[in-house]
Amino acid sequence: MYIVGIGGTLSPSSSSERALHGALDAARRLGAWTEAFTGERMRTLPMYDPVSLERAPAARELVDALRIADGVIISSAAYHGSLSGLLKNTLDYVEDLAREERAYLSDRPIGLISVASGWQGAVHNLAGLRAITHSLRGWPTPYGCVVNTAPTGLPGDPIDQHASDLALVAEQVVTAVGQGCPPARRLVRGSHG
Q1: Residue 47: how many CB atoms within 10 A of its CB?
Q2: CB-count burial class (<10 Å; 0-12, 13-18, 19+) for 116
Q3: Which helix (H) or strand (E) holds 173?
Q4: CA gyration radius, the chain
Q5: pLDDT digits (tens, 9 = 90+) for 59-72
Q6: How far apart are CA 75 and CA 122, in angstroms?
Q7: Greater confidence, 178 or 112?
Q8: DSSP annotation of 115
Q9: Segment (H or E) for 75
Q10: Do the Cβ atoms of 19 and 166 come closer than 8 Å?
Q11: Model pLDDT for residues 118-147, shown as the tens digit of each residue
Q12: What's the whole-model pTM score?
């Protein structure tokens, strides 16, 4: 199974990128093959242009990976309660899959991680990521991980403190892929013949 991770920022110490790698590491331990599109790879994507059919090599790599992905994990920093422009531009390229048989992110489990310096922005961002996932026809996993990086006075790194939560996101994506499709989709198909 092939899980694509998308997230991070241009900061060399990006918490959302470290969280993404934590989830992808957990997915690999569960037997998945993973690939990450993080800050540096996202930086090379031109602004998405829906009119032009020409795509830069980095954009073709992203779209090709998403085309064959069995599942996706998205990790977003919260900027003013929403995702960063860098991540939004990256997700805009999913539009290139609109007319395919498996349009957008159809029938794929999508694990979501939101990282912010404060609970309010992180939780609001997670809600936005869920709405985007629905718009792209993906299936957000039941558990979405929220990481608050604001100083708490507790010892240790906030990403490390959420390692089990990040692993749960990965586990839910891998489990849904292993079942052939997200459980909710199987229920709908089963109840309607």
Answers
A1: 7
A2: buried
A3: helix 163-178
A4: 16
A5: 999 999 999 999 99
A6: 11
A7: 112
A8: E
A9: strand 71-79
A10: yes
A11: 889 999 999 999 999 999 999 999 999 999
A12: 0.90
Amino acid at 193: G
Beta carbons within 10 angstroms of residue 167's beta carbon: 18
Query: Rounded to an integer, what distance in angstroms lies between the CA atom of residue 126 and that of residue 115?
Result: 9
Three-class HEC string of 3-30: EEEEECCCCCCCHHHHHHHHHHHHHHHC
Question: For the chain, how many residues are written?
Answer: 193
CATH number of 2-191: 3.40.50.360
